[in-house]
Write a structure and sequence with these properties.
With 334 residues, the chain is an alpha+beta fold. The chain has helices at residues 2-17, 28-43, 119-122, 139-148, 167-178, 186-189, 201-209, 318-326, and strands spanning 50-51, 70-78, 83-86, 94-100, 107-110, 114-117, 126-134, 150-153, 219-225, 233-237, 250-255, 267-269, 281-287, 298-301, 307-313, 332-333. The strands form 4 sheets. A 5-stranded antiparallel β-sheet has the order 1-2-7-4-5. The protein has a 4-stranded antiparallel β-sheet with strand order 9-15-11-12, with helices on one face. Residues 235-315 form the DUF1214 domain.
Length: 334
């Protein structure tokens, strides 16, 4: 009997020791990033790219608020003994974006550039890479640039999450901050010197609703709520001030209230959208299967909580780009 009781106590103690760790505001950034790191390593081993060869769709989306006019490549890299990263020159926009497993210390390089990163520079032994390669020059060129990207790491130690995180509490924290997505100032959410602190509202919203977003030196984002209904709506705006001659471009993508693509007619961008006679652009939002009387620039949606993100890549002047994004119009029902 005593042996049975002792065995039961040991079993209960063991179960308590192995209990999942509750996710709070204080540890959410690490818990969320551990999730993405783990998912990446289920697809490819440490220090190796997982290249998406096709544009993101409703069926293959993996990261919240994905862009659909470029190809994503991802990797988790051990930088404990240093690593060099390199991009080839090409005819399309390409950027390799790095950050650590606190979702901070953001860095990036463009095509034709390279960077050396070690633990001291990264702030951790492991970093995540999200490489974006535009398809504006065609799929063959995009695939060539993906394949030419170099990871030269001097160590390949297995990655382990900081804790066994509780999924339910992580989902709850994410949902809490996700609801505030239209309040975000992305130039403060993703910055090169940001630290993962829960009192930084923009950082928390960014981690929950736009994980792996680029710093404002490389891209500016503007998030706007829809009309609150599945109905015809539109926006008209002047094109952002970007380095178009260096591959810079803008795109607008619509998402559900939870931040996921709703339909495969989900975006418009500066390389394919039709401009108005005065050089401005009008984008039309329509219920799925409808066009709302528009001949072009139509984005479909099917969720009353729909919202959209304007992305402006390669801003010429950060301050000017931030001002343009802050003054970007809201969607108006037709």
């Amino acid at each position: 009997m005593k042996k049975t009781i002792l065995a039961t106590v040991i079993a209960i103690t063991s179960m308590q020791t192995m209990a999942a760790v509750e996710v709070t505001d204080a540890n959410f950034a690490r818990a969320e990033t551990d999730l993405y790191f783990t998912q990446q390593l289920e697809r490819q081993p440490i220090n190796r790219f997982d290249h998406n060869r096709d544009n993101v769709t409703v069926d293959n989306q993996m990261i919240i608020r994905s862009n659909t006019d470029l190809l994503y490549s991802t990797a988790v890299v051990d930088v404990s003994k240093g690593a060099t990263f390199r991009l080839a020159k090409g005819d399309a926009y390409q950027i390799m974006h790095f950050f650590n497993n606190n979702h901070d210390n953001h860095m990036a390089i463009y095509g034709g550039e390279e960077i050396y990163i070690d633990s001291k520079k990264a702030g951790s032994d492991y970093i995540y890479i999200l490489m974006r390669t535009a398809t504006t020059a065609g799929m063959d060129e995009a695939h060539r640039l993906q394949d030419a990207a170099v990871i030269d790491a001097k160590s390949a130690k297995p990655f382990k999450p900081a804790e066994d995180w509780d999924n339910a509490s992580r989902d709850a924290i994410r949902a809490k901050w996700e609801k505030q997505v239209t309040d975000i100032k992305t130039e403060k959410a993703f910055t090169t010197g940001i630290t993962a602190t829960p009192d930084n509202k923009d950082f928390m919203i960014g981690t929950a609703s736009g994980w792996a977003g680029l710093p404002a030196d490389y891209a500016i984002y503007s998030t706007r709520a829809g009309t609150g209904k599945v109905e015809c709506a539109s926006i008209t705006f002047e094109k952002p001030t970007l380095s178009y001659d260096k591959g810079g471009y803008w795109s607008i993508t619509a998402y559900s209230g939870e931040g996921w693509l709703m339909t495969d007619k989900n975006s418009a961008d500066s390389t394919s959208a039709t401009a108005n006679k005065d050089g401005s652009y009008t984008i039309h939002f329509a219920p799925k299967g409808e066009a709302c009387g528009a001949a072009n620039n139509v984005i479909e949606m099917n969720d009353a909580g729909w919202n959209f993100v304007l992305r402006a890549y390669r801003p010429i002047d950060k301050a000017q780009a931030v001002e343009e994004m802050q003054n970007f119009p809201n969607a108006v029902a037709k």
